[in-house]
Amino acid sequence: MKNVYLITLSLLYVMQTPSQTALEIIEKADSKLRGVSSYAEMTITTVRPKWEKKMSMKSWSKGADLSVSLVMSPAKEKGSVFLKRKNEVWNYIPSLERSIKLPPSMMMQSWMGTDLTNDDLVKQSSTVVDYTHKLTGSETIEGLPCWKLELTPKEEATVVWGKVIVWVDKQDYMQIKSEFYDEDDELINLMKGSDVKTFGGKKLPAKIEFIPVDNPGQKTVIEYTVWEFDVDIPDSYFTTQYTTRLK
């Protein structure tokens, strides 16, 4: 009987012990979005109760430290470039023919009138490095079984959110939904992924909506048309000198 009791306890321990930690899940989800390198084409739609604005962009990245985005349309913003190089963020403005380095105080400001911030665009803060992670359960989102994780910022991290709740699907490690809370534990923004497609051999949401919960009828929608991974990108792409040559 003693042996049966010990075996039962061992089985219960195995069943209740997660096969992956919350950090490992977040690392896999983050790595899937980045790859060694990536190239993407997308349309960004800013939705307001009385109007909509569409913008098309191209984006290149290498790992977590290098990324550059080029605005293709509309004509007024065409040629604008946002460059991230480690902890530096630069904005090339065609009308001024110069690049301006963004100070940390500007990272949480609205990016080009959308519901995205400058930080969202260049991903200066990291869900892997700047937060601690806790697995809080499982839920089905968009018909997909997902892990539910709670991310809280580390004391030394310069992030704006008091807490982030993330849902990652268990099959393909897609980030399907995220909720962003302020320091008073009030829900501020919601991110939802949908229209899952295969890009470069990876299943990913082709449509991502950013919704400020206190502003009814307002959201920003990103729709990916091209998303390639592990592509050859010259290092020159990630220099301020090259921003005028991106096409």
Characterization of this structure:
By secondary structure, the protein is mostly beta strands. The chain has one domain (21-240): Lipoprotein localisation LolA/LolB/LppX (outer membrane lipoprotein receptor (LolB), chain A), CATH 2.50.20.10. The protein has helices at residues 2-16, 22-34, 118-122, and strands at 37-48, 51-62, 66-73, 81-85, 88-93, 98-101, 131-141, 144-153, 163-169, 175-181, 187-199, 202-212, 219-229. A hairpin with a 5-residue loop joins strand 10 and strand 11. The chain is globular, with a radius of gyration of 20 Å.
Summed up:
By secondary structure, the protein is mostly beta strands. It contains three helices and 13 strands. The model is unreliable at 1-18 (pLDDT under 50).
One letter per element, helices H and strands E, the order comes to HHEEEEEEHEEEEEEE
- Cα-based radius of gyration, to the nearest Å: 20 Å
**Structural class, judged by helices and strands?**
mainly beta
**What's the CATH H-level superfamily name?**
Lipoprotein localisation LolA/LolB/LppX
Strand order, sheet with most strands: 6-5-4-3-2-1-13-12-11-10-9-8-7
Largest sheet: 13 strands, antiparallel
What is the averaged pLDDT score? Answer: 87
Helical content stands at 10-25%
Q: From the 3D coordinates, which CATH architecture would you assign?
A: Clam
Q: What low-confidence regions span 5 or more consecutive residues with pLDDT below 50?
A: 1-18
Overall 3D geometry?
A: globular
- How many domains make up the 3D coordinates? 1
Number of helices: 3
Q: And the CATH topology?
A: outer membrane lipoprotein receptor (LolB), chain A
The total beta strand count reads 13
Assembly context of the chains: single chain
Termini separation comes to 73 Å
- Which percent band covers the strand fraction? over 45%
CATH class assignment = Mainly Beta
